[in-house]
């Protein structure tokens, strides 16, 4: 099935979701929903309520999200399709995140998204629909062909981000004592940092990320090592003066943000680049956004400051 650029007149504006407040007495869904049970569910979540939808829209700023709207009561085959989608998405190891919306359980989401029929799939990239909505029941073979082609198209467009798995099976024999031990995979990179060999640390972490893009610890280590690499030998005062004098200069602002991060001013670093994204456009905006995503990775995607930063970035982009 050939996917065409999304151009449906009157499409819902997903950016409004990034400004949705948490319900009284509750907290926003930080994980993008509960993992979907069954095989292939490491990259599939169930979406429950507007906060869950907001989370997966924000997740699409990292890598594509496939929203699938199903109704087990009205179209029983749609439930099997959701399970098959979880399997197929899992085979792409993070290139996609499947987000399943049961319109029977969440009619408000269906109304908000103007869903007229089920099942229906919608691919989101950077918080926006990237293809025409795909209606109807599809078997697992059709889904495999569809997502192989879609992955090729996204790669050709330079969209190479990956989601972190939402669940993982424990390894036999592992426990709290094992978690406390130093993982030998990171020993070379950590030794390089101890020896003040930042370039060596970057190279070692890069090897790990190339071998396993879903390794969140290696990705965070690489991101932080790159911050250290960029700021090595920089005159702190001169860099801050340059940023103050040139508020729209991407190079000056990203350097100041790196220094903010290293100085422990994480929220300040994020706010600086969010405002730069808000003020700039085209290549400058893309550069600021990519740099900010790198800093998110350095801090860690589960950090509440990163979650706040992602919400602010989504708001700035729209």
From TrEMBL:
PROSITE patterns: THIOREDOXIN_2
Domain of life: Bacteria
Region (Disordered): 158-180
The Thioredoxin domain, residue ranges: 16-152
Name the record gives this protein: Co-chaperone YbbN
Species of the source: Nocardioides aestuarii
């Amino acid at each position: 099935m050939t996917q065409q650029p999304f151009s449906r007149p009157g499409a819902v504006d997903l950016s409004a979701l990034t400004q949705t407040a948490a319900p009284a007495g509750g907290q926003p869904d930080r994980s993008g929903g509960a993992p979907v049970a069954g095989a292939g569910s490491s990259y599939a979540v169930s979406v429950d309520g507007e906060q869950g939808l907001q989370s997966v829209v924000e997740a699409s700023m990292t890598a594509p999200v496939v929203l699938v709207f199903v109704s087990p009561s009205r179209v029983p085959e749609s439930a099997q399709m959701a399970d098959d989608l979880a399997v197929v998405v899992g085979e792409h190891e993070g290139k996609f995140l499947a987000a399943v919306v049961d319109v029977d359980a969440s009619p408000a989401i269906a109304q908000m998204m103007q869903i007229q029929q089920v099942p229906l799939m919608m691919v989101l990239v950077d918080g926006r629909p990237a293809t025409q909505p795909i209606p109807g029941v599809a078997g697992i073979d059709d889904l495999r062909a569809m997502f192989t082609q879609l992955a090729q198209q996204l790669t050709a467009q330079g969209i190479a981000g990956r989601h972190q798995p939402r669940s993982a099976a424990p390894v036999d024999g592992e426990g709290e004592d094992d978690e406390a031990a130093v993982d030998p995979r990171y020993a070379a990179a950590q030794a390089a940092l101890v020896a003040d060999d930042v370039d060596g640390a970057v190279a070692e972490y890069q090897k790990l990320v190339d071998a396993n893009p879903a390794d969140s610890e290696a990705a965070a280590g690489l991101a932080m090592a790159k911050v250290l690499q960029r700021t090595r030998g920089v005159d702190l005062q001169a860099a801050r003066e340059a940023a103050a004098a040139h508020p729209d200069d991407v190079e000056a602002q990203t350097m100041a943000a790196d220094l903010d991060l290293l100085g422990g001013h994480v929220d300040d670093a994020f706010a600086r680049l969010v405002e730069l994204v808000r003020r700039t456009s085209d290549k400058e905006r893309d550069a600021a956004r990519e740099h900010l995503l790198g800093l998110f990775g350095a801090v860690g995607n589960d950090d509440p400051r990163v979650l706040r930063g992602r919400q602010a970035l989504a708001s700035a982009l729209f």
